[in-house]
Amino acid sequence: MAEEESKPKGPDFTKGIALAALAEHGMLSGHAGEDEVLLVRRGDDVFAVSPHCTHYHGPLADGLVVGTTLRCPWHHACFDLGSGEALHAPAFDPLDCWKVEKQDDMIFVREKLPKPKSKSRAAEKIGKILIAGGGAAGFAAAELLRRLGHQGEIVMISDDASPPVDRPNLSKDYLAGSAPEEWVPLRPESYYSENGIDLRLGTRIAALDPRDRQVVLEDGSTLGYDRLLLATGAEPVRLPVPGAAPSELFTLRSLADCRVIIGRAGTAARVLVIGASFIGLEVAAALRTRGLDVHVVAPEARPMEKVLGPELGDVVRALHEDKGVHFHLESTVRNFENGRVTLSNGTAFGADFAVMGTGVRPRIALAQAANLALDRGVAVNSHLETSAPGIYAAGDIARWPDRHSGEATRVEHWVVATRQGQTAARNMLGHREEFTSVPFFWSQHYDISINYVGHAESWDEICVEGDLRAKDGLVRFRRGGRTLAVASLFRDLESLQAEAVMEQVAAPHPA
Ligand SMILES: Cc1cc2nc3c(=O)[nH]c(=O)nc-3n(C[C@H](O)[C@H](O)[C@H](O)COP(=O)(O)OP(=O)(O)OC[C@H]3O[C@@H](n4cnc5c(N)ncnc54)[C@H](O)[C@@H]3O)c2cc1C
Ligand code: FES
User: Fold this and answer.
1) Which single residue of 221, 381, 395, 454 could bond 485 by disulfide (Cβ 3.0 to 4.6 Å)?
2) Ligand 1, from 131, 158, 215: best to mutate by most atoms within 8 Å of Cβ?
3) Under a CB-based contact definition with an 8 Å cutoff, are residues 185 and 198 in contact?
4) Cα separation of 334 and 349, whole Å?
C-alpha cells in the first residue's frame, strides 16, 4: 500500500498525451518514469518542470503563470519556465526541467535536462565586492553574484556567529519543535568556501570610509572594496521591564537567540509575550505548540490592527484564543518579578520568562556615521544605490522608491530583502536594474499562513471578500480608489493575481 501511495500520480508523459488534453494556458500534473512532472502550456509552447517549489516545496500546480514565469503559491518565488532558474527569491535553486517532444498532436516527456549553469562571465569586470551583513539580503546577493558568473573576490562580513539562516523559520517550525535545526541554514557551511565566498562570522564592521572605499573592522584592521553592499538588517527593540532579570527577558533575531529560548522553554511552563506583533504572535503560536501557557500583553486593542486592519486582527486573535493563548490587550507590563507579572490594569499572573516582540530598529549606524543620505533608514534610488558611489543598500535598512505605492518605502520582509540583495548584486556587476518587485510577506500562526502583497501604511477603505473566520478570504486595503495591498487566508492564487496586477502599475517615482 505504502509503495502504491508513493508512486507518481497522473498520466505517464513518457507514453505521450494529446496536446489537446492540455488547455491553452493550462497545467497538468503527471510523471515521467518515477519523477513527478508538471506540464505548463502557453499557447503553442509546452514546458515540463518539477511540480515542487525549491523553497519550501510549495505546490506549483496551484501557482500562477505570468508570461514565461511560474510563481509559487506559498511565498511567491518566481521561476523561469524554460530553464527552471529561480529568477526571484525566496527560492534560490532551479526547478528540474525536462525536454518536451512534439510528435503530430502528441507530446512526450522523456529526457531530464541538465541544470542551468552559472553564466560564464559577468557583464562587467568588477574586482572585490564586500557585503556587510550575513542575512537575507547579503546571502541573496552573494549567491546570485556567483550564479551570474562574477569571478572576483566576495567577502561577506557578519557579526552573527552563524552562517546565513532561514530567519523566518526561527519564529515558526524550528521554534515550535517541528523542524530540525538542519533546515535552518540557507546553505551548508561548505557552500561558502566551495563558491569562493569569504564568509567572516563573528566579525563586526566598526566604521565605513566611502572616500577611501574601505571598511574598518572592530579590531582596527581595514578591508578595501570596489563595490559595497550594506545589508546590516535590524535589531529588536528592547523595552525596559521593571523588575525583570535580564536572564528572563529574551528577544529573537538570531539562531543563537532562538536556541536560548528553546532551552528556556524546555524547563518552563508559562511564558509572557510582550507585544502582539508578527514576531510576538508567531512566538506565542510556537511556544503554545510546545505546550506552554502563553500570555500576550500589548497596548493596542486588536493584534496587528495597524497592518492588517480590524477584521483580520480579530481573526488572528480568535485563532490564538482557540489554541488557548491569553490576551491582555490595551495594557502594558508594570512589573515582572519573581515569576509574577503585574499589568498596568492591575491584572496579575505567573510567567517563568518573557519574550519581547516589540518591533525592530534598522541598523543604520555605519551609514549614519559615514554621512550617507538617510530617510528613516538608508535612502537608496531605484537601483538601490546609496548617496555614496559604489555603495548599495538592501533589506531592512533600505528605503527605496516603491513603484507600486509611489512612496519611499522601507519594510522588514524576508522576500523583499532577498530580492533587493539580488537586484543589488546585478547592479554591482554593472546591470542597470530597477527594483520593481511588489512587496510581499507572509506570517504563519499554527497551520494558518497570512499572505500580504503590496504595501499600505494607511487606507480609507477595506474590502473583505470570502469568510475570514472560516479562514478562506482576503482583504483589500484601498486608498483613493486604488488597491494598495491585499492580505489573504488560503487564497493563494488570488494573492498571486493581485501581485501580477500590481506589477503592471508603474507609479511615478517620488521626487
Ligand atoms: C524571527 C523572525 C521571523 C521572521 N519571519 C518573517 C516572515 O515570516 N516573513 C517575512 O517576510 N519576514 C520575516 N522576518 C523578517 C526578515 O527575516 C527580515 O526582513 C530579513 O531577515 C531582513 O534581511 P536583512 O538582510 O536586511 O537583515 P538580516 O537578515 O537581519 O541580516 C543582517 C546581517 O547583518 C549583520 N550585521 C549587522 N550589523 C553589522 C556590522 N556592523 N558588522 C557586521 N555584521 C553586521 C547581522 O549579524 C546579520 O548577519 C522575520 C524576522 C525574524 C527575526
Ligand atoms: S514554498 Fe515556494 S516560495 Fe516558499
Assistant:
1) 454
2) 158
3) no
4) 12
3-class SS of residue 177:
coil
Predicted TM-score (pTM) above 0.85: yes
Distance 135 CA to ligand 1 centre (A): 5
* Residues shown for the chain: 511
Whether residue 122 has pLDDT greater than 70? no
d(CA 172, CA 296): 17
What are the Cα distances from residue 130, in Å, to 225, 276, 325?
6, 37, 45
- Distance separating alpha carbons of residues 228 and 220, to the nearest angstrom: 19
Q: What amino acid is encoded at 353 in this protein? A: F
Nearest ligand 1 atom, CA 411? 19
pLDDT tens, 49-73? 999 999 999 999 999 999 999 999 9
Write the Ramachandran bin of 369: left for phi over 0, alpha for psi from -120 to 50, otherwise beta. alpha
What pLDDT is attached to residue 125? 73
Judge if the beta carbon of residue 135 lies within 6 A of ligand 1: yes
Q: What is the DSSP string of 308-323?
A: HHHHHHHHHHHHHHHT
pLDDT tens-digit map of 252-302:
999 999 999 999 999 999 999 999 999 999 999 999 999 999 999 999 999
Q: What is the mean pLDDT of residues 239-252?
A: 95
Q: Which three cell numbers stand for residue 88?
A: 526571484
